[in-house]
Amino acid sequence: MKIRLRPYKPADARWLEKWVPSDIDGFWKWSAGRFQYPLSEGDLDAHYRWFECAEDGFIMLALDEKGAPCGHFTVRKIDYVSESARLGFIIVDPALRGKGVGRAMLEAAKEYAFGSLGLESLELGVFEDNLPAYRCYISAGFCEEGFEDSITFPDGSLKKIIRMTARKRKK
Fold first, then answer.
1. Segment 19-36, tens digit of pLDDT
2. Which of 71, 128, 150, 169 makes the best surface tag, with the fewest CB within 10 Å?
3. Cis peptide before 21 (omega within 30 of 0)
4. 0.90 exceeded by the pTM?
5. Distance (Å, whole) CA 89 – CA 91
6. Cα(118)–Cα(14) distance, integer angstroms
């Protein structure tokens, strides 16, 4: 599957509003509490306006072979000295999950980061009970590197975040 990446535009908020889970647990697994529940275009736009002003990251939309939006992620904490960055807010259109879109999108993200940006590693975090995302990240070449944090969810449960990293292959 071929995935194209392009910069996020404010009009893309409508896609995320459709894709982000409507149940609070799924919403928190995607947002880690950084957005107000339920997601609104206004909240997303306000957060991303702030994000776009930061010097260390960018927001991407993934497009399928026909140019239709199919996924989204952010790249932040870009460090050109340590040649690393962090992916976040990773999501795929629910209608396309389980069809290789997530893996293809992450492969495109790695290609861009390792090629165009000249980075050596990409990291991300996934909640320990988010097995579909965890499996997707493993299939895209990310490896577990331990736990990084825990977050208390609205139901009072404490969930650990697994840190995962993909490294540029040496030639």
1. 999 999 999 999 999 899
2. 169
3. no
4. yes
5. 6
6. 32
